[in-house]
What does this fold into?
Amino acid sequence: MLPKKERLTTVEFQTIITSGKVVRNDIAHLKFIPGEEKKFAVAVPKKIIKTAVMRHFAKRRIYNILQTKKDAFPNGSYIFFVTKELVGADKKVLESVILSLADKVASYR
It folds into this structure.
């Protein structure tokens, strides 16, 4: 799990939702705003995963990967959205998706 100082607050989350830029790949998307430090959040909609236990499990898996791969992202605030395609994915697939999104963010700037 990421430390609290590297996670988004509710106000920051709402700001990114309303005015953030979107980067997509085949099976995931990410909203971000450039900033001075790296902060992350993971959003798992109830439409995608019905039970809270499985939603939290998916968040923990993604936070774990983000903790190890956060250096690939430029400074800024990010919201990673979980899609249906990612629900049963193994760790290697999740890592490749996260790294491809990081590359797109870096080239977007």
